[in-house]
Amino acid sequence: MTIRVLLADDQPLLRTGFRLILEAEQDITVVGEAGDGATALEQARALLPDVVLMDIRMPGVDGIEATRRIVREQKGGHVPRVLVLTTFDLDEYIVEALRAGASGFLLKDVPPDELVQAIRVVAAGDAIVAPSVTRRLLDKFAALLPPADRQPTPALLERLTERELEVLRLIAKGMSNAEIAAELVVSETTVKTHVGNVLTKLGLRDRVQAVVLAYETGLVVPGAFS
């Protein structure tokens, strides 16, 4: 199945570079480009991409608001997955993009093969949580961000068993299923079951939202994994 990608970035040169990288792959096609958030919204509605590669800083409607609207608007049950791009040092509000519904984020200098793999992973319904970058971003900015629209209460975490809480902490640490399995000395299949239970019980879409919620509820705190 071909993965349909929409490129949203206000720098034409970057869009051209991404297009060249992605269209060299047999299973990926770029269906459109947008230089601002408003155009990205229009293109997402019209072209129904599987993945939107979204810049944060764009004129007019920024990438955070565009992500929020794209994820919220469903057409025939189709919801594009949004993969956000950041330069890290400048984009303090990347966590807000994750809260808005993005399925993950990459640095703009990501190697081509990692970009391609990330798009495939996101298109398949998983999330990209780069452990080192995730920890640095959340540790640096979590205490400074404005409150989320939905503030979880401690009772939310009471839905989880002790083992599920432990798995959630390790997800927040940026560990993969294989790494969690090794840490807990259980099978990867068992970890997948625990992760699925965590997401279902907390009403989360993917691991990225789980990381953000772990910080918002105080299950982990900025600096915990430095």
TrEMBL record:
<dbReference type="Pfam" id="PF00072">
    <property type="entry name" value="Response_reg"/>
</dbReference>
<keyword id="KW-0238">DNA-binding</keyword>
<keyword id="KW-0597">Phosphoprotein</keyword>
<dbReference type="InterPro" id="IPR011006">
    <property type="entry name" value="CheY-like_superfamily"/>
</dbReference>
<dbReference type="GO" id="GO:0003677">
    <property type="term" value="F:DNA binding"/>
</dbReference>
<dbReference type="InterPro" id="IPR058245">
    <property type="entry name" value="NreC/VraR/RcsB-like_REC"/>
</dbReference>
<dbReference type="InterPro" id="IPR000792">
    <property type="entry name" value="Tscrpt_reg_LuxR_C"/>
</dbReference>
<dbReference type="GO" id="GO:0000160">
    <property type="term" value="P:phosphorelay signal transduction system"/>
</dbReference>
<feature type="domain" description="Response regulatory">
    <location>
        <begin position="4"/>
        <end position="123"/>
    </location>
</feature>
<protein>
    <submittedName>
        <fullName>Two component transcriptional regulator, LuxR family</fullName>
    </submittedName>
</protein>
<feature type="modified residue" description="4-aspartylphosphate">
    <location>
        <position position="55"/>
    </location>
</feature>
<feature type="domain" description="HTH luxR-type">
    <location>
        <begin position="153"/>
        <end position="218"/>
    </location>
</feature>
<dbReference type="InterPro" id="IPR001789">
    <property type="entry name" value="Sig_transdc_resp-reg_receiver"/>
</dbReference>
<keyword id="KW-0804">Transcription</keyword>
<dbReference type="GO" id="GO:0006355">
    <property type="term" value="P:regulation of DNA-templated transcription"/>
</dbReference>
<dbReference type="Pfam" id="PF00196">
    <property type="entry name" value="GerE"/>
</dbReference>
<dbReference type="InterPro" id="IPR039420">
    <property type="entry name" value="WalR-like"/>
</dbReference>
<keyword id="KW-0805">Transcription regulation</keyword>
